[in-house]
Amino acid sequence: MMASSYSAKDEDGHITVSGPGGGTLRNKKPENTAFKQQRLPAWQPILTAGTVLPAFFIIGLIFIPIGIGLYVTSNNIKEFEIDYTGDDTSSPCYNCAKNFSWNNTKSCTCTIPFQLDQPYESNVFMYYGLSNFYQNHRRYVKSRDDSQLNGNIDSLKKPSKECEPYASIDNKPIAPCGAIANSMFNDTLTLFYNDPNGTSVPIPLTSTGIAWWTDKHVKFRNPVGTNSNLTAVFQGTVKPVNWHRPVYELDTDPENNGFINEDFIVWMRTAALPTFRKLYRIIQKKNTMAPTLPRGNYTLVVDYNYPVRSFEGRKRMILSTISWMGGKNPFLGIAYITVGSVCFFLGVVLLVIHHKYGNRNNSANISN
Amino acid sequence: MDFSLLRNIISRYCVGEEIWVDSRTVYIGHKEPPPGAEAYIPQRYPDNRIVSSKYTFWNFIPKNLFEQFRRIANFYFLVIFLVQLIIDTPTSPVTSGLPLFFVITVTAIKQGYEDWLRHKADCSINECPVDVVQQGKVVRTQSHKLRVGDIVVVKEDETFPCDLILLSSSRSDGTCYVTTTSLDGESSHKTYYAIPDTMAFRTEQEVDLLHATIECEQPQPDLYKFVGRINIYKDKEEPVARPLGAENLLLRGATLKNTQHIYAVAVYTGMETKMALNYQSKSQKRSAVEKSMNAFLIVYLCILISKAVINTVLKYAWQWSPDRDEPWYNHRTEHERQRHVVIRAFTDFLAFMVLFNYIIPVSMYVTVEMQKFLGSYFISWDEEMFDEELGEGAQVNTSDLNEELGQVEYVFTDKTGTLTENNMEFIECCVDGNVYIPHAICNGQILSAASSIDMIDSSPGGYRREYEDLFFRALCLCHTVQVKEEETVDGIKRGIHQGRPTSFYISSSPDEVALVEGMKRLGYTYLRLKDNYMEILNKDDEIERFELLHVLNFDSVRRRMSVIVKSSSGKISSNTGLFIGCSSCSWLYGYLFCVLPGDYLLFCKGADSSIFPRVVSGKVEQVKARVEQNAVEGLRTLCVAYRRLSQSEYQEACHHLMEAKLALQDREQRLAQAYDIIERDFVLLGATAVEDRLQEKAADTIESLHKAGMKVWVLTGDKMETAAATCYASKLFRRTTQILELTKKRTEEQSLHDVLFELNRTVLRQRSISGLSVDCLDFGLIIDGATLSAVLKPNQEGAGHGNYREIFLEICRNCSAVLCCRMAPLQKAQIVKLIKASKEHPITLAIGDGANDVSMILEAHVGIGIMGKEGRQAARNSDYAIPKFKHLKKMLLVHGHYYYIRIAELVQYFFYKNVCFIFPQFLYQFFCGFSQQPLYDTAYLTLYNISFTSLPILLYSLVEQHVSMDTLKREPSLYRDIAKNSLLRWPVFLYWTCLGVFDAVVFFFGAYFLFDNTTFTSNGQMFGNWTFGTLIFTVLVFTVTLKLALDTHHWTWINHFVIWGSLLFYVIFSLLWGGIIWPFLNYQRMYYVFMQMLSSGPAWLSIILLITVSLLPDVIKKVLCRAMCPTATERAQSTRPCLTVEPSTIFMLSQSSSRMSF
After folding, report:
1. pLDDT, tens only, B965-1011
2. Which of A21, B356, B442, B1001 is spaced 20 to 30 Å from B91 by Cα?
3. Does the beta carbon of B1071 lie under 8 angstroms from any beta carbon of chain A?
């Protein structure tokens, strides 16, 4: 009965649409379309204990194994961290830290011995870590000129005013300008393996592949001048105040010099939090048999150039292996296990509730 | 109303002080009055240009911007934007400028387009040709060149170019017919009259010779009111003054019908026409949701300010040490360093404000507006609310109140035309105690004594016959019914005579039509009004003519109308038919009831209460008994009385009337006084009974409203018995209802004080006895207008007796139904106001169909007009108009319910999603040295509210149906679940806000612990702060959208499209945004950030984890609430699959049709 009347009205609606010159009364009749009558076919899910129960169990069953997997992976990652800030009198770098002055042309070197208890099997990633260093301070974050770093000649000669007060010295533009570039981390870290036989073997450190590929190849570009000589291109600019060397002398390798120096690129990616680490070098695994870093004694030699004591910062050197999930971070695994367990537990609770109240509701409905 | 007054005053001042007088003088044809008559004051009037457009080409931008920034929200965003421009802000001005610009531009374009349309319409109106009489010739000119005083020729089917005074028409009787469809929607033809002195003009030359002035009031917007006077100068004699009323004034916008042409003179032109004065919109009503929204906004503003203050204070505490403030790696510029610390702190405060300003979203206003505007279409699209008979569906006059339809607690309804059909049928008449019932079949045959139960004196013949005749004549004469004619004049007589449908009666009052038609069936046919003579075809097929001298129009205060006629032999060949009984009647009755030619007769009909006190003789008792019995049966009764006027009495009456009519000021009042003097010393003739049938499904609707927890009050001008019968029939009162009476009759016996206290005691006692089961006995209150005004009168005796008002309200609160009878229109509004102002501040709805309901429709929170037979006034002034009372059920229970839950979710969700959005930024300040570093990229900040999360909620708020329509209709009690703004109360708001804060904390610290001093790529590379923000933002967008998905109960393809579509859009946008080096940007911080993040496994895992954790509490809360203490709505949702026919459905079908059901 209803259906037939609806279909009849449907026809009416179509007539109305097709006949534009129809009478005014007919036109006023609303069209009987599912949308206009709010009768669109719809899926109407309801969140009840019954429907949510399986979801909880499934989430529990999926999350707990993932969590365990993550946790185990994270635990298998080997990480070694050493603080070489040198604010402690016993620290080898104490003198360097204490006597630091920006005017020192010659860098102070300190040597820190350390011991690895376990062999590091795969590639080892060497990080430097800074604490209490606000790379995410707004004034700091914006103090850069991306178009200068992208090789724009105009920006090279006339840096953006965002770079102030690190934009120019005596009307000469700074390249690279800005507070970020100016404060680039310039400690030099080198590692030596102390062979049991007494010799100190330097460990080869790879300095490429530490920056994002896209940064290195697209976002950062050296300005292209009339000649390919970087020194000539950067003619007319001055080095940042706190740098020892101009930007075109960062590395001897032309593919890693100037703005596309990977240490520089890494530094330019500002960290999210005041305590952060940045990839410094990679220790490539040489042969499949021997571990990259065998257990034993090592020496870290630091060219101490970077002052952190003034703002109570700390400097660390970190050696870490990497898994598919990155560095050592038990948080994710624990979180997964916790959430999975909570879901599972809630599933059980809901099951009880569902049994207890579900029946009551049904009976209530019947009585109504 | 205040506005129009103000506008009038302003416009008057603008025109110039010298003409600021209460009346204006119009010189017809711009001819000066003869010297000595009065001073010729040339007056300046606006030309006939209609300017409905608001803007001109030049002032559009400044004026439109000014209008838009007057809105407090827009202004707030403008301030934020300006602050961003001025100070060094964390986010670029684009982030708030772009949305604001978008909103402003869209609004400006919309308004500009509308204004352009208005310009076009104005142009076409202003340039349409008009014929004007100049120097005895018809000259064609353009409409906007018309001036006050021009004589205009209007032809059939043309629209009047301005407000005109009719001088003469092509019809010999000086009338013309007009439809005012475009003005008030009434399609019936109305008759307008020319003044007798000018109606004879036939040609332009004649008209041009007219030498007269018109004095009339200054323009005012009331369409149905006009007061004026025409002075006609003839040959240097004293001018002849004639009154002018609304019946002489042809309004701009109306159309001439059934008349070849008319001559008329322009009195109001251009923007001063009544149509133009009616352009202005009504006062704005604000819904409860809007009010709570504003309250929430204030809370959020406080949160915003306190956040900014906290951060500013902490910032300065933290950077107290200079090494923190300015470490070597991060110096200030010299310029910044020199700034005073107070200025710096203030700038920082502003910067924090700017950073957190997104917590009050621009887009919420836009979305709410769009939701309301688009959503209101569902009402007008609703097929179930379409009435085939009228050919019209529901009509939305304002979309601001959609959600208020779901909040109604009190329904005030008119009776006639609203609960009832207003389709009158003549049932019976009672003449001198004898009852006559006409039957449609016996056309033209009088059926006396069809029911002789009440006959007291059954002696046939004698004066009875004359008595009857007079009664029928009275009904045939005492009305304002017009005969709608067909083309040929010959056809009319025949048409009416033979009862063919070629002609029919039209009147503004359906009662009158019913009476005249009833008379036709009893043998007396009203033919027409011709040359001021009313023609009646009596039962002997003879035409009787009466000269219509005066009509004392009906008004709702007097509740009666009268005519004064002079009987004349006219062209009737013999008087036998009319005076057949005269010779045989006794001398007394012969004098009383015979109509002799030349007699002046005053016929009056009206409500019994207004007639009986004025009656001096007649069988009052019998008639009264019959009237009361009829009233109990729910019939509308009218009493008919007459008075024979002597020549001198007539002259006196004439004098009174003329004096009142000529008055330019207080005319209404003086007319009322004159009527009061004339209408007295009646002889009662009898009474009539007219049935007004109950509207289809009225009872079912009222029952549903009751079940939905609404209190239904019937406010009517009718008398108590009639109204009570209707209430019983419409199930407002049930058999179990205990009726409490608070009427004049009772208060006469006891003092009002005692009655009130007694009733109050009854109510309270009952409540305490019945305890929990309140339903078993409910109360109905009947109160009449007189008592009500006594109750509402401020108590002079001081606080000793307490306030009656409070007691009255207390009684009303305990009554499920209240009937207020004998109400004047203003009292209706008073009642609504009283309830509105009572301490619970309930939401009221008024529904009515007639002009007498307009005041209450305007007063109530929601006003609903019924497109009834009593014209369009109610529908025009209402917020929503529906064809029938039964549509109210769907309007409230379905549409209102939906709109409410939709907008409630919309508002709560908007605040929620912005808390989720902004709170992580707040937390981030603790980790970035309170430096106002934004967490998200500019593009994300800008687009979050505009595109990533806007459409799902908008579409949700348009199509969500948490319960199916049929369930809502079947179970009106679900309406109680959303009563009292339940979804927008503070605890709910708090829940949403807490949920938002929780989610924000989860997002932020989830990402924080993940990022904490570790790497999470498989190549050992590190992520920066933008990846951190993007990770949080991704989790945020997904969580917020999925939260809405969890709330959606009605997944149509639209919801799927919009929800998954906007998530997809976010991903695609992010890929694109980070995919290229954007040449026009001076920073490339987002370059490849999103892609790099997606390339990392732990990022994926943490996104999934964080979304799950954020959604978990809400799901648990929902499930637990549903399991532990389900609301009725939730129960209805779970029982949805089993759609069985429930008893209520069957009950719905059984309709009580019309009669009483005691």
Report:
1. 999 999 899 999 898 888 899 999 999 999 999 999 999 999 998 88
2. B1001
3. no
Q: Which of A14, A33, A38 to mutate to test the interface with B (most CBs of B within 10 A)?
A: A38
B62: Cβ contacts below 8 Å, ≥ 6 apart:
none
Q: Identify the architecture of domain B409-419+695-767+776-792+803-860 in CATH.
A: 3-Layer(aba) Sandwich (3.40)
- Taking the C-alpha atoms of residue B913 and residue B1044, their distance in angstroms, rounded to an integer, is 10
Based on the fold, state whether residues A276 and A162 are members of the same structural domain. Answer: yes
Q: Between B416 and B1104, whose confidence is greater?
A: B1104
Q: Does the pLDDT of residue A207 top 80, yes or no?
A: yes
- Secondary structure element (H or E) that encloses residue B551, with its range: strand B543-555
Structure tokens at B1119: 């499930």
Instruction: Yes or no: say if A189 and A107 are a contact pair by the CB < 8 Å rule.
Output: no
Q: Does one domain contain both A270 and A308? A: yes
Number of H helices, E strands in chain B: 43, 34
Q: Which fold has domain B427-442+479-486+503-570+596-691?
A: Calcium-transporting ATPase, cytoplasmic domain N (3.40.1110)
Is residue A28 domain-resident? no
B491-519 pLDDT tens trace: 334 334 444 445 677 666 677 888 888 88
- B90 contacts chain A (CB < 8 A): yes
Domain ranges of chain B: 50-127, 141-276, 362-379+894-1130, 409-419+695-767+776-792+803-860, 427-442+479-486+503-570+596-691
**Does residue A35 form part of some domain?**
no
Report yes or no: B1021 and B909 within 8 Å, Cβ to Cβ: no
pLDDT in tens, B681-727: 888 888 888 887 788 888 899 989 988 989 899 988 777 777 888 88
Distance from CA of residue A215 to its chain's centroid? 14
CA distance A291 to A311: 39
Mutate to test the interface with B, among A61, A75, A332, A359 (most CBs of B within 10 A): A332
B276-331 confidence digits (pLDDT tens): 776 544 556 778 888 888 889 889 999 999 999 999 999 999 988 888 888 888 88
Tokens representing residue B1100 in the block: 């994926």
Q: Are residues A120 and A97 in the same domain?
A: yes
Residue that is written with structure tokens 């360093």 in the block? B337
pLDDT of residue B996: 96
Cross-chain Cβ contact B330/A143 below 8 Å? yes
Contact B198, B232 (CB under 8 A): yes
Is B422 in contact with B416 (CB distance < 8 Å)? Answer: yes
Please determine, for residue B189, whether its predicted confidence score (pLDDT) is greater than 80. Answer: no
Bridge partners, residue B263, by sequence: B153, B168
Q: Minimum mean pLDDT among A62-71, B413-422, B1145-1154: which range? A: B1145-1154
End-to-end CA distance of chain B: 45
Name the residue among B241, B823, B1138, B257 with its Cα closest to residue A366.
Answer: B1138
Domain that holds residue A114: 80-322
Sorted by sequence, the CB contacts under 8 Å of residue A100 that are 6+ apart come out as: A108, A304, A307, A309
Give the total number of structural domains in chain A. 2
Are A117 and A259 in the same domain? Answer: yes
Residue B789 one-letter amino acid: S
Q: Is B969 annotated as a binding residue?
A: no
Contact A361 B1084 (CB under 8 A): no
DSSP B705-742: HHHTT-EEEEE-SS-HHHHHHHHHHTTSS-TTPEEEEE
Q: Mark yes or no for CB contact A276/B382 under 8 Å.
A: no
Q: Which two tokens stand for residue B939?
A: 């593009």
Quickly state the pLDDT bin for B588 (edges 50, 70, 90): very low
Helix or strand or coil: residue B765? Answer: helix
pLDDT band at B794, cuts 50/70/90? low
The answer to whether B1016 contacts chain A (CB < 8 Å) is yes
CATH class assigned to B141-276: mainly beta
